[in-house]
Amino acid sequence: MTNASSSANPSADDSGASAEGCGFVDYKEMIMKVCGSTSMAAAKKAEIRGLLESLHNIHTGVQEGLVKAQHKLIRLLEDHTTLKDELSRTRAAANNMPDTQDPHSPVTIGSTPGGVRREGALVWVSGGDASSEDKSTERRIDIVNRIGAKGEVMITDSFFSRDGKLGLRVSDADRSETGDAARALGFETKVLGEFEPELFIRD
Predict the structure, then answer these.
(1) What pLDDT is attached to residue 190?
(2) Do residues 88 and 154 make contact, with C-beta atoms less than 8 angstroms apart?
(3) How many CB atoms lie within 10 A of CB 78?
């Protein structure tokens, strides 16, 4: 019994290496030494060696997969850091942009809250289709296109005010033609010059 027990549990001296710090191959050789010290048949020894080789291949595959996963994780972390940096820069740029005109606040043609001078004139249109309850974008664009085509002018901005009037922004050179075209189509107009205040609030 004593001999069998000693053979089944080789000491560090018998195995030729300490169990601490041994790799998979070291353990495989230690197991094969145990097999060699017994009366096990050669076929069984070969079978055990084959099983150990298969186990070693599985172990190696798992290690390789782990390394690939670690590399992928590192790339994801790097991409995440890059994305955070880009987002921070975008937010900083947005915070540094000048305030734009609030469409619901009173506006002035001569100057804006940001101190940027607005060029051109504002033509207020009322009556006709402009007085309809329909204040949709489609209706606004339809009226703008008709007046622009009639007067052969470029309308750079348009909006409905809260009191129902339609505001058309045009260049100073086109304000007379715009007013004439609107009146020819049955609208009433009021033309404000570059330095006159816009008396109505955008809707």
Answers:
(1) 82
(2) no
(3) 10
